[in-house]
Fold these 4 entries.
Entry 1:
Amino acid sequence: MIQTIVKVSGMACSMCESHINDAVRRAFPVKKVTSSHGKGETVILSEQALDEAALRAVIDATGYHAEEISVKPYEKTGFFHFFKKG
């Protein structure tokens, strides 16, 4: 799994978050997408890395502005993750 975090400017409410989430879901095969206007970011989980230029275009088309994009491998951590030996 890949976690993509996009800093997004212009979000002011939960409807703004919903607009971005819906646009990303329509454009890409994602497992999960959540946005936070308070943090000014959208977090996307997907099986494959997303095309950053296309992602920027999709978010910018909603009227908001995609800024910094960071990508990293994602490992699910559950309630008992602290019992793992490593």
Entry 2:
Amino acid sequence: MTEKEIQESVWIAGLIRKYRDSSISGEEMRKLDEWKKSREENRALFEQLLDDETLGNTLLEMEGADTALHIQHVFERAGIGLPAIEPPAKRHLISRRIVQWLAAAALIAAIAGTAWFFAGTVGKYPADKPVAATDTILPGSDKAVLTLSDGSQVVLDSTMQDVIKEQGNVNILNKSGRLVYDASKLLKGDGRPVSVNTITTPRGGQYQVVLPDGTAVWLNAASSISFPTAFTDRERKVTITGEVYFEVARDQSKPFRVSVVPRAGTAGGMQVTVLGTRFNINAYPDEDAMRTTLVEGSVVVRKAGARMKIVPGEQASIAVNGAVFNKSHPDMEEVLAWKNGRFRFNNTGVVSIMRQIARWYDVEIKTEGDLSAIRFSGGIGRKDNIEKLLEILESEGRVRFIRQGKSITVSASR
């Protein structure tokens, strides 16, 4: 890698850093777009540098490592065929200051926060008029309430440690913000009663749980799951509300069944039956339908007399009061974005976007006028503050926000 190439990489890394924190100018955005479009490898690198989960450990990996070779390794992991860095004998040709600068720029791009990218917003942000703000609105975090069979409750958060409760031969553990039901000591037919537990996330909360059979579950904000402390029946049955993602542990002898509770005051829930698979269920009471999206395996979805089997990449949806399932092929990144710590929109209506914002930031949303034709595409990390998100939405010039405390009014721009 020549010094000129290093300098160019530094410049690009700097643009990506600005893109991530929304400080990039219109001209800089145009240059970044040209670079992304020039090679497929560049686009791949750009996506890698937006993935906090993939590159969040870059700084730790740098410790004690050869800086220049590490930078090359980071690019190679992203599939970027940059020219090789000269061997140690020729390393004197590379300015040490520039190499350090590149390392800093790459690291900043890797850990400085998540980016927002909107179709049609090039050169338009930051917004000309900031959103009115008073009190700070924080993003959601890992928090939930565990309700035990006797009605007692345990407040959960990411700081809790060790054993929370022992029920029969099942230990309930909290490991780094994830609740784990350890049934390793459970003896088949030991005669101890099986109790039902419920985990509920508030607005502005999310949580993970590992069920007694090893099934991993992610709960989005304003969601819940009820389940037995041991699966002793012929089926593994759970009940959910809101939005929940499952990675079901395989057990050919015991199908896994999810009962989805519709909105209050309505009848006719939905059931999803699987053996072992990964899927997402979105059944919030303020959405127009209950949706099951399959990532891996196969599931059968039922509601009253309606039935549909879907395969990976498909989504089955049905209205709460509906009698027919509809099948579609959604944007999987959009469906799973919440589970991966992001908002992602693909031509999504602003009213739907605001419902997601209301749940995650625990705010009240009011709408004025007809917003049905206003749609956005893009993404942002769920840990970003709400002002940044609203300002970028507003920057397209199609909506405006008025915020008073935790109440946000959205209307079409005039």
Entry 3:
Amino acid sequence: MKPWLASAGAIVAGFVVTAAASTAMDAVMQAVGIFPSGPQLMTAPLFALASAYRAVFTVAGGYTTARLAPDRPMRHAWILAGIGFLAGMAGVIAYYMIGGEKLGPAWYAISIPLEAIPCVWLGARLVLGLRPRPKKPGDS
């Protein structure tokens, strides 16, 4: 496999893990009645819950990207974090353009891009922390 293809695959995989897990959890929360269905607005604590599990899934996305990266896992994670930040900012812009107050609190929309960078970084650090470090001369 060509290195650029493996790199792109690692980044796409991290994005898919984050997006698919978040979407699936939203559906589960709605199916079991924790989140309201239809046009009802969620309460602030429910938005906080959604923000929390999205953060966990973003860490998992960063972990996936770094784990699958053919080399320089943190570089791949930074690319994923940048993509997540830009996608989240697009959501913030859309929120304000369509009068998002009807959709939920502004802090929630803003939390999505703000979570991207530290959460992806943490996921990548978990991978790097798990890899054996090269021995330095004199180490036993």
Entry 4:
Amino acid sequence: MRVDIYRRAEAEGKFSHLAVPEGRPIPEEATNTDWKREVTGQDLDDARERWEEYGIHQPAAQMREKGYAITSLGDMTR
């Protein structure tokens, strides 16, 4: 799956990530925060249970349910 990756700064120098299908806008419910584009057209395997580099669990399920996938609170990266 090709996705665009956005990131935002969180507390304690950590970051959360948001993945949306390539070329699609950030869904309205997620636009109220300060997301900055990090990668465009990243090819990631949506069959993986987790995208380690972004701290995103069950990306395919999240994409189906919400139209985007986001880092879980406990898995923010530095």
